[in-house]
Design goal:
alpha/beta; 2 domains; 8 strands; 12 helices; Rossmann fold
Length: 333
């Protein structure tokens, strides 16, 4: 028996079939993981028992009006809170991130209102409230943002418009501001530079050696499942068109969701006036929680400088008024 086994030699056909079978198995695994990534990204938000047990404007003594408005394109309605401030000359859009709710931003919103701003705090459709329909990572949601800009201008036509936005919302704010000149100042907290980079960063945590292959497959599957490619959501391609309007980029050095290096890339691509504020110990969207008082003061001073000061005076004095500190880019590398 041992002699027969020792003389066994697989034929070329057997070798080819075995190799082909193994290759198909590997491709199948890669495709399954890539499909899982895409389905996780676009899966509709499920209703949670505790969705109703959350903060509202009432707890913060905000005179908010529940509103809905249409997106720039689409048949749905975007929900939000409009908070008017008597005598305000500015309106701030407050934009949550991926699968986040507007109620999560009421703390900062209350401070901005007390500082004399009108507010429009809104949910991206399907992210803050369960609707049973697939979502995207900024591709469709930018229409909600542009609809919010139009609604805010309808409510206060003479008010100057600023934005403070988080994560996916921050990425959308960059792309939206580049497309709409009504937005005069942008605060982008924890924005990703490209759709590809944020997906790759998260896949890399699990498959560090072959993440690029997974993301490449996920890109094609996203086109089949959601009708768009990753390259169609790239804030880094748009950020340079925001100038001469100012942008403040905020990011945590220990961000586990968006690569901190994305903040560096966005900052380098943006044109003046621009500022990069890196907090080495903060996680994703965690800058506010490192020091709420300092964070809030920075928001208020940024909008006071760029929105409340007359445009001509701002242009003449911008060199003296802009923060002069140079950000330590190595912190985000």
């Amino acid at each position: 028996m041992s002699k027969r086994i020792g003389h066994f030699r697989p034929s070329l056909k057997q070798v080819i079939l075995s190799s082909l079978g193994g290759s198909i198995g590997i491709v199948g695994i890669l495709f399954t993981v890539a499909l899982y990534v895409v389905e996780t990204l676009i899966r509709p938000r499920k209703h949670n028992l505790f969705d109703e047990y959350t903060f509202s404007p009432y707890e913060f003594d905000l005179p908010a009006e529940a509103v809905t408005f249409p997106p720039l394109q689409g048949g749905h309605e975007v929900s939000g809170w409009y908070v008017a401030c008597e005598g305000a000359t500015t309106t701030i859009l407050v934009c949550p991130g991926y699968r986040s709710k507007k109620s999560e931003l009421l703390g900062l919103s209350a401070q901005l209102w007390k500082a004399g701003h009108n507010l429009l705090i809104f949910d991206y459709y399907g992210h803050g409230t369960a609707i049973g329909k697939p979502i995207t990572l900024g591709y469709r949601e930018i229409s909600d943002f542009l609809g919010a800009v139009a609604y805010a201008k309808e409510q206060a036509p003479q008010a100057r418009l600023g934005v403070v936005a988080y994560s996916m919302g921050a990425a959308i704010a960059i792309m939206g501001a580049a497309r709409n000149q009504e937005v005069e100042a942008v605060v982008a907290d924890s924005a990703f530079a490209t759709h590809w980079s944020v997906v790759d960063y998260n896949v890399r945590h699990v498959f560090p050696l072959i993440s690029t292959l997974f993301v490449w497959l996920a890109d094609y599957i996203m086109w089949l499942r959601a009708g768009y490619r990753f390259r169609q959501v790239e804030p880094i391609r748009d950020i340079g068109r925001i100038a001469p309007r100012p942008i403040l980029i905020i990011h945590g050095g220990k961000d586990s969701m968006v690569d901190p290096h994305d903040a560096t890339l966005l900052y380098r691509t943006a044109n003046e006036p621009k500022e990069l504020w890196l907090l080495p110990e903060a996680d994703h969207c965690g800058a506010y929680f490192v020091d709420r008082k300092v964070y809030t003061a920075k928001m208020i001073s940024f909008f006071d400088l760029y929105l409340k000061k007359p445009r001509l005076q701002l242009v003449e004095g911008i060199a003296d008024e802009q923060p002069q500190s140079t950000p330590n880019l190595s912190e985000a590398s």
